[in-house]
Amino acid sequence: MYKHANEALAKAKSLKELLRAKDELTQKTGYYFGIEVLGLKEEDPIKFERFYSEIHNLALRARESARFVAASPGGREMGESLWSICTPEGDTLANSLGFSTHMVAYDTCIRFMIDNDYEENPGINDGDIFSTDDGKTGGAPHPGDTYSYMPVFAEGEIVGWAVAVNHIMEAGAPIAGSWPGFSVDTSMDGLVFPPMKVGENRTPARWWEQLWKSRTRAGVFNVLDDKMRLAGNVIIADGIKEIVREYGLDYYKRAIREVIEDSRRAIKENIRTSCVPGKFDGATFRVVKYKGLSKLWPHADKDFMLHTKMTLNVNSDATILGDMTGTSKWDYCAFNGYPGGADIAFYLPITGNFVHNTKMTSGLFYDVKSYYPKGSTYNPDTDYAAFSNIWAQSMAMGALHWNAITRSMFAKGYLEECLSVEGDWAGIQGGGTLANDQNYGFTNFEQVGGVAQGAYPYRDGSPVTWAMWTQLTNIGNVEEWEYLIPPFFYLGRRLVKDFCGHGKYRGGIGLSSIHWVVQPGKDLYVSRGGAGTSQTTHVALGQAGGYPAPNSWYLAVRNSNLNDKIKGGMPYPRSADEILDYLAEEKITAQDVQIFKYDPPQLKMKDGDVFSDASGAGGGWGDPLERNAQSVIKDLNEGWVSEKIALTCYGVVARKETSDNEVRYLLDEPATQKAREDKRNARLRCQSVKDWWENERKKVAKKELIEPVKYMYNSSFSTQDGDSFKQNFIDFWQLENNYDLN
Q1: Is the pLDDT of residue 164 over 60?
Q2: Does residue 560 register a pLDDT over 80?
Q3: Helix/strand/coil (H/E/C) assignment for every residue in 353-379
């Protein structure tokens, strides 16, 4: 079968012919590009691996060099970037470190350019620069992620693409930041553009730089990031030319396809050996509170909930299908997205669990598939749906996928590979005008750079050190964020007591920062973008009896006496919970204190005001009453849990001892044994599942649901495959077949 690939490569005279040949051969044979025999690898495996190591090294070198050439703080410090090498038809060959599954978008973008005859107009030539941040045509999850593409030529023909993507500082929407909130349709998403040629001869057009400066609030930083992406792509393009000279063009063209087929087989085998086949269901829910915020758009002036439903089918032939039937219909809100961007989240668990070597390629995408019903949140049947904050839903969907994989692997007997995944994050963003009339916009990525691990079946999760969406975790230095956001100063950044999912093994503790506003100039507005809100849990299940983590929440303290107290020598409050303690103890007073368990609207901040967040907690694993009591005592002494949680959640009774003005907790073992026995007995007296179901069924039959929930289910019923989900709903609650919620 390898000869068919060789014939196709020799015969194709355009990118369109090459793409069609690849699609047809892959579909017909079940092997990528029809490559049934790994001829180059079998002939000389050392040469084959050396070839790939040189390709992969190019991507690594591009990232580590380019981010120190020119970059914003987010581009330089954090894992919110990626450099990749693609085949001419858009499949990924190698990735740098970074948020690797963004390689899903490359196929969407390059395929769009090929299908729409970009080879003829505007032309694809050596040294050209293309860019996009569009979800529909470019595969971007949201406008805050911007992609740069450079075609790579050798011996007069295109042999691939150098691609870079990073999360920019500000997207230019009505709501400042890189996750524009409260968008009603895509006209409010910011500077959104399809794949377009923005430079030639490795030089960006003058108008391109001016566009960033005039249409976004962080033009200087966005231009720096654009130069960063270009610098890395140039490194890749030059390096590929050298590799072609070393190995020969024929070897290069054959080897890059063989590498992808090789990695496809490895992933399939890892799925086969790691997972128990089955169907794994999950659901998440998200609050959308737009009521009162969209007076100019009455069709969006409403509060409702979004439903994300996934059935993950792990099949006996080592293929995986993630079926999103039952997910809400797209709506007039910021939380929609398109399939390319949604897949970036969908494939995160696959890279995290089954890519056990450095060959992270498009081989990932051929035996693992997603299905998004037409019209749903992840596949709108319109070009105009807002997609500025798809990550809010996609991280929940990715967490459902990861937890399903965990359950499949746990059933196989694995422990170290399994954890309770949340993927919750928050990002503070905003914009303002300094005293000198300088306008600016910003996003603080610290809560995206690292969150807590969920618990494992054998140990607690760790705080800050994990992120579902990137191989790297780095919340950034406070000094970097302070010069990015002139009026923001950190009063503190620390973990929050009790802020985790509890269980036999608890999740990692979530993080909070306090941002103190000092001399903001003429105005300053702050909002946030994030995966979840604490009116609901991030995912609607725990692992093996563990509790899901509490979700993100936010605190704004305005018109306070904080400045005077700090001048008087008061110790700084260091986290959202601590500033609430200060208020309760009247160490400080404030006229306006707002706690947001949902997305806060854009808030005007003045000198001395404070904005604080708490996010990134990890979920628990196992029954909390089975937790080692001494582990709870250790948590008490280290300040991670409170006495109240120790008793009410874990059934642990502690006594205090004071020595040298230091309070230490000791275990009261008899009292703990009794407390735990009482709690277990109380469980026997609780409402049975049967009684719960019957009581809830009466409410459903009478349609006694609050309006946001009723709206949510009607939305799920109205997508392309909504009838099947509605039938499942009817069957579960044993309702009449003509039941509806209207």
Answers
A1: yes
A2: yes
A3: HHCCCCCCCHHHHCCEEEECCCCECCE
Under the banding of pLDDT at 50, 70 and 90, the label for residue 133 is very high
| Amino acid in the structure at residue 718 | S
- The rounded distance, in Å, linking the Cα atoms of 508 and 493 is 16
Nearest Cα to 426, choosing from 515, 331, 318?
515
Residue 269 has pLDDT above 70, yes or no: yes
Residue 532 is predicted with a pLDDT of 86
Q: Whole-angstrom distance between the N-terminal and C-terminal Cα of the chain?
A: 57
> Residue 285 forms beta bridges with which residues?
307
Helices 2-11 + 15-29 axis angle, to 10: 160
**How does strand 368-371 pair with strand 320-323?**
parallel
- E strand spans, 584-718: 590-596, 603-604, 610-615, 654-659, 662-667
Interatomic CA distance for residues 641 and 657, integer angstroms: 17
What is the rounded average pLDDT for all residues in the chain?
A: 94
Place of tokens 């005077």: 564
How would you classify residue 201: left for phi > 0, otherwise alpha for psi between -120 and 50, otherwise beta? Answer: left
Query: How many angstroms separate the CA atoms of 327 and 345, rounded?
Result: 15
Q: How far apart are CA 428 and CA 517, in angstroms?
A: 13
pTM reported for the whole predicted model = 0.95
pLDDT (mean) for 253-268 = 96
Segments of 135-291 assigned E as strands: 145-154, 157-167, 196-200, 203-204, 278-289
Q: What is the arithmetic mean of pLDDT over 291-303?
A: 89
Going by C-alpha positions, the residue among 603, 512, 505 that lies closest to residue 552 is 512
Q: Tokens 């050996």 map to which residue?
A: 273
Predicted pLDDT at 540: 78
Instruction: Compute the distance between CA of residue 346 and CA of residue 404 in angstroms, rounded to an integer.
Output: 12
Model confidence at 1, pLDDT cuts 50, 70, 90, reads very low
Residues with Cβ < 8 Å from 16, sequence gap 6 or more? 114, 115, 117, 119
pLDDT at position 4 is: 65
Q: Tell me the residue type at 238.
A: D
User: Is the CB of residue 337 less than 8 Å from the CB of residue 377?
Assistant: yes
Question: Residue 516: what residue type?
Answer: W
